[in-house]
Amino acid sequence: MVLNRKQYDVAVIGLGTMGSMALWQLAKAGVDAVGVEQFRVGHDRGGAGGESRIFRLAYKEGPEYVPLLLRSRELWLELNSRSPTPIFHPCGALTIGRPEHPDLAQVFKSIERFNLDHRVLSISEMASIYPQHRLHEGEVGIFDPAGGLLIPQQAVEAAVGAAKNHGATVLEQTEVLDIDADATGVAIATTNGTIRARRAVVAAGVWSKKLLPGRSGRFEIRRSVLHWFGTQDPALFVPGRFPVGIRRSGSDGNFSFFPTLDGSEIKCNLHIDKTAVSDPDAFDGTIDEEYSAFVRDQIIGLVQGLDPDRVRAQGYLDGYSPDNHPFFGDVPGNDNLTVLSGFSGHGFKIAPAIGEAVAEHVRFQRTTIDISHMAFNRQIDDIEDLLERNSE
Ligand SMILES: Cc1cc2nc3c(=O)[nH]c(=O)nc-3n(C[C@H](O)[C@H](O)[C@H](O)COP(=O)(O)OP(=O)(O)OC[C@H]3O[C@@H](n4cnc5c(N)ncnc54)[C@H](O)[C@@H]3O)c2cc1C
User: Fold this and answer.
1) Do 164 and 122 reside in the same domain of the chain?
2) What are the tens digits of pLDDT across the range 2-17?
3) Atom of ligand 1 nearest to the CA of 318
4) Looking at residue 26, which CATH number applies to its domain?
């Protein structure tokens, strides 16, 4: 069955993090686009699950991301103005650790290369401004005032809403089953019939392995476990007093932290486990109590003022590439099939600029911002230590 007779300019497959932003930017540029999502827009089963995300400008993943981050920040603020509730809270971001730690060295490199506003806080300054963090001897805090907290599911909904306002068609609860691309265009078989488009953008996250076997980029599906903690004094954990951040304090002390917005819980992601997952459809995010008890004890040793009796946990998935960089490009041999994948635990914050780059790539076969570190044919140097691949 043909869903409708028309041929769209572009079909975006998957309206999660990257797909929602790509659809928004394509529609804004006047492209006749359709977006197809297997679940409801704004669901929590993909890369946008887990209630909050970090935005950082002083970037440990490398200075090459800073132009994407600067542009994304502008677009996050634009999206904020279109959303009934804020999706970007510009509370700043902290990076905590010893200055010689490789991740802090990278943060300083990003700061220097782009002359980014920042403040280095000594252990005593940290104790007086951010007493929640129990620092170790020799550690410092780097405050990045352009950082902030993102609300991911609402961000996806806001981007899809903006895309619709610009004329995009959105098909929810429609699973793409097969993609057949040739020189004349792309035929997309879905659970609700076939869609035709001049070209397709596959933004199916961890499901892209299933949709385009062997052609979706070299990444592994891995689990990240989030823990939420009740606090003894919620006023100490609001964004202005407990900004988002990451900490590098040894193998059991690497984690990211997120403030409370509603006064009930903060969130932490201890970077100790990235269990491999083969089938995202069979994934169960339930976390066993023994594992949670270990994480609770670690975090309570590093952050004071948490309630050890109010803890909950949930696992989520992302695709991790061997060098921590995502894939953005056309499938070899199919220049009307673009794939975005492997965002390696740090893709959310750059999603709006990636969406804009998709719109440019589709229209002009080039992007304003250099994304060559995401090319399919780049030289990939494997990072041996899985923990080094952890991001947020
Ligand atoms: C726990 C966790 C914490 C993170 N924290 C941060 C952070 O603080 N900051 C940050 O920048 N990044 C963070 N990340 C990384 C970031 O969230 C991901 O890199 C990003 O969301 C991946 O986006 P995506 O578009 O590739 O996948 P998704 O957002 O999962 O989108 C894929 C979409 O495609 C749909 N789809 C799949 N197959 C089909 C099909 N056949 N038909 C139709 N639709 C389909 C899916 O339903 C989904 O909606 C985190 C990731 C995780 C898992």
Assistant:
1) no
2) 666 789 999 999 999 9
3) 53
4) 3.50.50.60
